[in-house]
Amino acid sequence: MTGFHSRSHSDPNILLVPGLDNSGPAHWQSLWERQWLNCHRVDMGNWHTPNRNAWVNRLNLAIRQTEGPIVLVAHSLGCHAVAWWAALERPRAGGKVVGALLVAPPEVDNAPADPRLNSFAPSARGVLPFPSLLVSSRDDPYISPDRAYRLASFWGADHVDAGRAGHINAESDLGDWPFGKRLLARLLDVAELSDEPQAPPPGRRLAADWRPDLTE
Q1: Whether the Cβ atoms of residue 112 and residue 106 lie closer than 8 Å to each other
Q2: Where are the beta strands (DSSP E) in the chain?
Q3: Is 91 exposed, middle or buried (CB count within 10 Å of its CB: 0-12, 13-18, 19+)?
């Protein structure tokens, strides 16, 4: 599989879950939304004054209203919304959500950079019941690398080091973030494997299958 554009029309729907203040027009999430017909943004409401339960309810509604398999692509505080949705709704393995790409989750437990993040504390604990990747940056002003790895451990997500990319947003000048597209394509490949009989559990399969390829 060479990339997302070469995939079939039967791919899962991509639900974008932005973070605090939403993702602006130059953000890679917005660019992906414009590029792909099966890519849709979840309207979380209260973008500037987020509330955990309200965001989880909005995400849950969007998932229920979307037909077919879903991959969640979350950025920043949206990652915590996904984790709390899984903790509260307890979706089953092999269910509607088949994977999650979690990009630049912020610190919410220990002196968050923005007080508006406090409503999502404490961070959800619990392994996500679907393959997931957590992508973090070495110079993200919202979280340190060790705390990002801590979240990946909480959620059972494989951790990917994106280098020095700030908060992995529009200010990082990533364009449509080709590296993220590559991650998404491989995540979709793993989601397809999950449908096969006797497929291994999500666990550490992502790292074992293809993490070395991402660091070339």
Answers
A1: yes
A2: 13-17, 39-41, 70-75, 97-103, 132-136, 158-161
A3: middle
Structure tokens at 166: 């700030």
* Interior/surface letters 195-208, b for 16+ CB within 10 angstroms, e for the rest: eeeeeeebeebbee
Tokens of 172: 């990082």
Taking only the tens place, the pLDDT of each residue in 36-85 is 999 999 999 999 999 999 999 999 999 999 999 999 999 999 999 999 99
- Residue 125 CB burial class (10 angstroms; 0-12, 13-18, ≥19): exposed
Token couple for 156: 């059972």
Tell me phi and psi for residue 65, to 5 degrees. Answer: -85, -5
Q: What is the pTM of this model?
A: 0.88
63 secondary structure, DSSP code = H
Q: If you count DSSP H runs as helices and E runs as strands, how many of each does the chain have, helices first?
A: 6, 6
* Own/partner pairs, 108-111, CB within 8 angstroms, 24+ separation: 108/77, 108/80, 110/147
- CA 132 distance to own-chain centroid: 7
